[in-house]
Amino acid sequence: MNVEPANTAPLLEVRDLVKHFDISGGLLEQLTLQGGRMVRRRTLVRAINGVSLTIQPGETLSVVGESGCGKSTLARAVMGLYQPTAGQVRYGGERIDNLDSRAMMPFRRKMQMVFQDPYASLNPRMTVRQILEEPLRFHHPGHTEAEVRDKVAEVMRQVGVRPGWADNYPHEFSGGQRQRISIARALMVDPAFVVADEPIAALDVSIQAQILNLLMDAQDQRGLTYLFISHDLSVVRHISTRVAVMYLGCLCELAPADPLFEAPLHPYTQALLSAIPRLGGKASGHIRLTGDVPTPINLPPGCVFHGRCRQAAQRCREEVPALREHAPGRFVACHAVEEGRI
Amino acid sequence: MKIQPQDATATPRLLEVADLTVKFALRKGTLPAVSGVSFNLGPGERLGLVGESGAGKSVTGFAILNLIAKPGFIESGQVLFEGRNLTALPEDKLREVRGDRISMIFQDPMMTLNPVLTVGTQMIETLKAHRDISDKQAEAIALEKLRKVYIPSPEKRLAQYPHEFSGGMRQRIVIAIALLTNPALIIADEPTTALDVTIQAEIMDLLLELCRTENMGLILITHDLAVVSQVTQKIAVMYAGRIIEMGLTQEIISNPLHPYTQGLIRALPQSGSGRGARLEQIPGIMPSLYNIPKGCAFNPRCPKKCAICSDETPALLSRGSGSLVACHCV
Fold it and tell me: Strand runs (DSSP E) across A203-241, as ranges?
C-alpha cells in the first residue's frame, strides 16, 4: 500500500489545468454603460487557475479546501465532465482532456466516480439491478445474461448490500445503503481509478465510518487509486497518502498526509488545520483569519491568499507564487516560505 | 424519570424540561419523535443536544418553544422556563417568551433571513414586535448588537440585503437578531453545519464569548460531537427520541458509558490512529420512528446486548460517575 511517490510513472497527471466558467449570460446582459458608451463585458468565474499534480498508482490523493475553492471542479475536469479551458489531463501517460466521447470510452471504463448525494445520484425509477447492470452492459456488450447477473451479485456482496434486494428501488434504502449502491455502480466495470467527491458528507456519523471502511477495503482488494474530495479534514488525514490543499482555484500545498497535518507550511493550511474541531479541545485555539474568501470572479492579484494572510508582504500582493518543492515530496506555493520568513 | 443531574441542584434553574413527549399523528400511525425527555439548564449554562438525523434533537428544540405544528403535538410533559410552563401558555403569552426571552438560531442563514428586506428593517421589525420603542431607538440597539457580533462598518451594513453578505456574515446577522432582546436562552440548531470549517470556528468562538459576557444559556443542537465538546458544559446524547446518556462534557467525552455514545466517539477518525486503519463502525442504521425496536431502541445494533434489552426500556439513571445512562448493561 505504501507506494513511494515519484518512483513509478503516475497513473494520472494534471498539468497547468485552468477552468473558467462564463456566466455573463446573453448578449443583452453583457452590455453595460460606461462613460456614456455601451460596453460589452464578460463575467468569468475562475474556478481553477493553473493546478498541476500527479497521482501514483494505488495511492489516495485527497483534495481539501473550503467551498468555492475549486475542488469539485477539479474532480469533474479530471473525469472529463468539464472541458478544461487550458492545460492537460493525462491518464497512464495518454492525454485524455481533448478526446471525443468515442475515443474516451476505454478511459471511462477505467475511471469511475462516486458522488456526494446518494439521494440525487441514483435514478429513482430504476431498480438497483438496472442501475448496476447499465454500466456493465454499456461497456461490455458481449457479456451473457448469466455473467451480468453474477457480476451484480458479486459486487453487491462486496459492498455489503444483500443481492436479494437487487429488485428494489433506491428509495427503499437508507442513505448509507444508497451510498453503497453508488459505490457498487462505480465498481461494476472494474475501474483502476475512482474519483470520490464528498462521498460521506451527506451521511450520519455512525454511517460515515461504515462507508470509509468500505472504500478502504475496496482499495485493498482491488488495488484502486483514489482521488478523494472532502472538506472533512480528520477523515482526509485518516485515509490519504497525500493531500492537496486548494484555495480559490490554486494549489497552496501538496504533501504526504502525516507531515502536512503535523507541520503545515502554507499559512492557509495552518489556519485551516487549526480550525478542525477536536474532541475535548478548546474552541478558541484556532488561528483567526481576517476577512472573507474573495469571490473567484474578482481574483486578487498576486497570491490569492494575501488579503487574509498575516505574513503577506509587498511581493505577495504583486507576484503569484509558484508551487515549489520545499522538502522532498513537499510542495508549497508561498513567497514567505520560499524566502524563509516563516 | 425525575432524576436530575447532581450539578443542577446547586444552581437556580433557568429551564426545566420534564418528561417531554412529542408525537406526530400521521396516516400510517402516530410517531413518537421525542419520548420522555428531561433535563435542566442553569442561567448561563451551555448544553449540547447530540444525535444523528431522526434522533429527535431538533423536535426537542422546537418543543421547548411550543413550536410544534400539526400533525405534531406535545403529548405530555412540562417546559418550565423562568417560572412559567410553556407547554400550557396561551399563544399571546408565548410571544413574550419566543424570540424575546428565548431566541432560536437555525442552520441555514439564507433561509431564516428575508431576502427582500434589508438587514436593518428585519432587525428593527423584530425589536418593535417585542418592545414599545421608536425606530431611532431600535436602530441604535441594532447597531450595538451588530458591533457585538463583530460586523465591520455596521451603519453601512444595516442598509444592505442578506445576499450582499457571505455565509459566515449572514450567520453573524442571525445571531445579532437573536441578541436584540437580550434573551436568557439561545437555542442554536446546527448553527454551523452549512458553513466552512474556518468560519465554523469563528462562529463557535462568537457564541461562546456571547454566552459568557451576556450570561446567556445555550442549547446547541448538533450531530458534531467535536464541536459540542469545545463549547458546552453538559451533553445529552439522543437516540430514537430518547436521551440515552447525559452528563458533564468532559466526563462524556473521556468516559462514555452507553454503547451508542462509545460507538459514536470511536467512529470518528482520531489523529494518530494510523493511516488506513479500519474505523470502528456501529453496525446497522438508526431505526425508523415507525418501527422503534421493543425495549432499548439501540439493542439491534448494540455489541453488549443481553436478554432484558429487547424487553424493557432502560431508564436514565445515575451510575455513580456523575453521568446519567439509559442502559441495562452499564
Answer: 225-229
Show the low-confidence residues of chain A (pLDDT under 50): 1-5
A75 neighbors A94 (Cβ within 8 angstroms): no
Q: Which of residues 229-248 of A touch B (CB under 8 A)?
A: 231, 233-235, 237-241
CATH assignment of the domain containing A78: 3.40.50.300
Side-chain-facing half-sphere of B259: CA atoms under 13 Å: 19
Residues B237, B251: Cα–Cα separation, whole Å? 13
Q: Is the pLDDT confidence value at B5 over 80?
A: no
For A201, which residue in chain B has the nearest alpha carbon?
Answer: B193
Is B102 within 8 Å of B65 (Cβ atoms)? yes
Residues linked to residue B26 through DSSP beta bridges, in sequence order = B29
- Cβ A292–B166 below 8 Å, yes or no? yes
Using a CB-CB cut-off of 8 Å, the residues of chain B touching A208 are 267
Residue A57 lies in a domain: yes
Partners of B226 on chain A (C-beta within 8 Å) are 276-279, 281
CA torsion A67→A68→A74→A77, rounded to 10°?
120
Largest Cα–Cα separation, chain B: 67
From the list B197, B230, B285, the residue facing A283 with the nearest CB is B230
Higher pLDDT among residues B129 and A290, named by residue:
B129
Provide the number of structural domains found in chain A: 1
Contact B285 A176 (CB under 8 A): yes
User: Which chain A residues are within 8 Å of B198, Cβ to Cβ?
Assistant: 66, 271-272, 275, 286, 289
CA distance B164 to chain A (A): 12
The predicted structure's pLDDT at residue B272: 61
Nearest chain A residue to B226, by CA? A279
Query: Could you count the other beta carbons within 10 Å of the beta carbon of residue A245?
Result: 28
User: How far is the first Cα of chain B from the last one, in angstroms, to the nearest whole number?
Assistant: 18
CB contact under 8 A, B197 and A241: no
Nearest CA in chain B to A271: B198
* Closest C-alpha among B196, B166, B143, B91 to residue B204: B196
Backbone angles phi, psi at B235, to 5 degrees: -130, 140
- Shortest distance, CA B198 to any CA of chain A (angstroms): 5
Of B205, B229, B279, the CB nearest to A279: B229
DSSP A163: G
What pLDDT was estimated at residue B110? 80
Q: Which residues contact A293 (CB under 8 A, 6 or more apart)?
A: A66, A68, A247, A248, A308, B166
CB–CB of B276 and A216 under 8 A?
A: yes
- Please answer yes or no on whether B279 and A257 come within 8 Å at the CB atom: no
**For residue A3, is it within any domain?**
no
Tell me what ipTM this predicted complex has: 0.80
Which structural domain, as residue segments, surrounds residue A318? Answer: 12-338
Determine, yes or no, domain membership for A322: yes
Strand ranges, E, within B162-216: 185-189
Pick from B249, B248, B223, B245: nearest CA to B314: B245
pLDDT at residue A283, as a whole number: 67
Query: How much is the pTM?
Result: 0.86
CB contact under 8 A, B196 and A204: no
Residue A129 belongs to a domain = yes
From the list B197, B229, B254, the residue facing A233 with the nearest CB is B197
- Residue B8 reports pLDDT greater than 50: no
Q: Which long-range contacts (CB under 8 A, 24 or more apart) does B84-90 make?
A: B87/B20, B87/B63
> Which H or E element spans position B46?
strand B46-50
